[in-house]
Queue: 4 jobs
Job 1
Amino acid sequence: MQMSESEQKKSAVRFVRVEPGYEGQRIDNFLLNVLKGVPKSYVYRIIRRGEVRVNKGRKPPGYRVQADDFVRIPPLRLVDREDVKPDGRLLRRLERAILYRDDRFLIMNKESGLAVHGGSGVEYGAIEALRALFPEERELELVHRLDRDTSGCLIISRQRSALRVLHQLLRNNRIDKRYLALVDGSWSEDRIKVEQPLLKNTLKSGERVVKIDPLGKPAITRFQVRQRFNDCMLVEAKLVTGRTHQIRVHAAHLGTPILGDEKYGNDDSNRRLRRLGLKRLFLHAESLRFRWPETSTDFMIKAPLDKELQALLERMSFNGSTVAV
């Protein structure tokens, strides 16, 4: 499936067959995996212009490729550059961040500030760094994504067959994903369900902005209060759907944006928490639970909060808080 560096430099149309094990991926994700290091904006541009064809037809970014599809990739108009490799310190942090590893997949506790893949101004991300860490691994692929500023559980497949199984579980909503967020303000209830459609927009600068809009895609988030503080709450968010910036936009819709969120949050509240030591988005993918086909028990894993967030909660608890029932 993967094109060599020399092939990418040639100014010629390429045709790539979707091999078994890669079916079910969105065409944009498929191309990002094929065209290693190519900016995401470039991939979306060639799809939008119809330069990418599947079996001679145009497809939207959400089209899911099928085994034996033939994908036409236009000539790449990119300036050659030397490959940028992650430094040794990052690789050592990534190795320590691996929470689980077997012959099918690995799960890491991704740090905040690390993109999941390179592109759009990012030289490399978690997947490129993991490939550098394990050069003998030929089939490492992202199973899903986390925002750059979100920390926590990230699944990486190690086999094509595992990638196919995990994508099927995701499509069937069979992977239970729980997040922790510190939100500004308070609710009268301890449990709230938000069901609001989300529409994604990309600004001319390339920045993605999501808003609630009737024309958007259905999105459901279930919130539950874990702990109440004087002017904020630690909440658990369960994703029923997995839209871009879903938790952040739904929390802001309730009037309780996530603290540290510079895009959808409250500037005054963010400044107040910055003085207490919060220097990042307080959103953490805490746990994953799913059942592998033909097994009788669930696989479940948790990623601990980083020291900065844990220390913040301890300082706030010392000042007095009420634990939700």
Job 2
Amino acid sequence: MSYLKPKKTSKVLILGLAESGKSTIIKVVIEGEIPKKNERYEATIDYQRKQKVIAGTELTIFDLGGQTAFLDRFTGELSEFIFSGVKALVFVVDSIEIQQISRAKYYLDLSLKKLEQYSPESTVFVFQHKTDLIPKKLKAEVGTTIREYLTTGVSKHMKFYLTTVFSDTIFRAMGEVYAEASGARKTLRPLLETFIRHNSASMAQIFTREGAPLTKVENVSNFDHISLTEVKEFFDAVVKRLAASENQTSTSMLLESDEHVFIIRFLDNGLALFFGFPKKRLRERNEPVPSLYNKVLAFSSQLTSITER
């Protein structure tokens, strides 16, 4: 299998208090592990770097330890090293540890000051995490309260997301981070929109292999009729088929429901394509499924060529 040799690099920080859920997010979204209830990961000591290639851009993701001693070093003596050249900061807040919110805000405010000093053009994402543990009727109220508190006295715009590793929310949120840090949306969205327009796709999205969406196309990529969890199940089916196959060069799967044709395509550059086409529209266009499949393959080649430049 060939891999991209990225010409661009980008730096992402993942920061938050100890046990806020940072390590679990990295295991699930970046490394592709299946989340398990009550599973605990070892605390990050100091910091760790993870590499992730998105659309030809190599992201260096800093997983920063959340113990007080580490946070004080990151925002103190190591601040220039940590906060220089940052494209995106992900600040993770434990939504159920309300007694820790004031401490989380202290380090968030310190981080924002360091970003303003060393990376003023960076984008800040706040993940209000572990929302699966909040009663459904209180989720919106808790989310609003935490958001209002964290933004008190802050002038820099921050993007807030309610997340949990047990739903699509964490993949959608990390997809936004990936898209911002890599510039993928600017690169990939025009290509996707052109393909949709010419081929009448009703569902279309470009993902990382772990399932984080990178593009948005109005009224198409919202997946009103299919959840990202179902897409992930399709991805897993493809992976299992590849693992069981003697010839592992095949990286596509075609699935049909009563009303749709779904095509999933994995690319060597770490991206995955998902398309849904309504059968009614295919009949109206007199478009046979093999022809549609070949168009997806051609689009895959075009996408790979663009992201390798």
Job 3
Amino acid sequence: MQMKESLDVRCRSIQESDLEMIMKWRMMPEITKYMNTDPQLTLAGQKRWYDNICQSKQDFYWVVEVDGVASGIASLVNLDETAKRIHTGVYIAEKKKRSLQLTMELQWNLYEYAFEVLHMEKVCEEIFSENKAVIRILDMCGSKKEGVLRNHVLKNGIYHDVVVRGILKQEWNCLKENIVYTHFLFE
């Protein structure tokens, strides 16, 4: 698979000056719709979160800049050094920057980082079962459905099933030989 054109994307470390922007993104209804919680965030809480991720050896977060504009978040979290697995997360808050190409290329870049920089054996995703668009994108990116956690998340009085997915290092090694994508800078 080959993408249309090269994207101008940079994934940079989150800075303390980003916290208010991230807080606003994270409370957007279209962003929280498919997340486990609907948080009422505060800057003090964001600062505690930021301090925790700065010290963490298991969680990696980046601000995704598209054409020089801060547009969303990409993450690799819950690194399990024993099992050599980690979970991905992506959201693009800036509607004008959202695209299938960006989402797929972000996912492939997260796989590349997890397997080739962090030396993981498996990358995992957990998605609400009703989030059909992301499930389809992950299918196209090479992730495989592994199961469903039924009534796994209670949110606003409603239980949600969660689809568990993953891609193994050997699957990534085969896949990357057949795709052409822009390699993003992670800093």
Job 4
Amino acid sequence: MIETQILKVETTKPAYQAIHLAAEILKWGGLVAFPTETVYGLGADAFNPNAVQKVFEAKGRPADNPLIVHISKFDQLEELTDNITETGKLLTQAFWPGPLTIVVKSSPFVPKIVTGGLDTVAVRMPKHNVALRLIDVLDRPIVGPSANISGRPSPTTAQHVHHDLNGRIDLILDAGRCDIGVESTVVDVTNQPPLILRFGGLTRERIEQLIGEVQTTEDDHFKRRSPGTRYRHYAPEAKVVLFERGDKLVFDRLNQKYFEDGKKVGYIIYSTDLIGEPAVLGRLVGSNIEIYSQMLFQLLRDLDTLGADVILVESVEDIGLGKAVMDRLRMAAK
């Protein structure tokens, strides 16, 4: 078993020794968990198939679930694709670095294990000094799926990573809690109009303000180009049950039903008038959607730790960042 080391790093000015140690581990085919503005990623050299295979093994990830490749400068995009559309250029110039992933036609140099055997590759430039500095020092793109056991809530702190992957990876760079808390938005720019394959930290509204109409799809031909779209994801050990905003009647009925079934009931709500017995493992969050998204995976993990069998979750409005939150909750409730 690997001895997993945790190194604390400052976000504004990451320590030289920590970043260079992490880059050396990646250079020699090891695995490093690193912070981004969305969630913690599990890094490996994107051009080293053996290292990438270790990512799949550490996470228990299906081999046909493609990985997002992270870059630190625009020149690195040319190593990954020979064909970037004008729409892709507009989006990256406006939103990189940031919580946007674009799907483009893959160059022949990208290992098929990275793309899940597809002819497309998903790429993003994270907005986090630690991630950017790590890629700069390595001087190669790195894969960066969420640094957790596949299917579990994504990690937004180094402690989440350690809980899931201790003994499976070499190093965790700890820069504190992630700012956004849900993964990047994935846009397929090979299609016209572009397709949002996964909602995330960049809202549909901001994208459409820049390039006009974008669409969504349930077509597996396209959905499979993005992670987080086909398998059960983001799920705690407890059963997740969604109910409509402010629906006290349904909340009370579900609460009572599971309690009578002998289940330990927890909840995540923001409508204060819903609170009541017999549920005792409550988490009340504010109506600010940015705070909700930042705390979502932490709350799910907390209620698991407290032993909840069922988690009742109040739905949020399905617009803006709320679309990303609801996407994660629906996947968790599958």
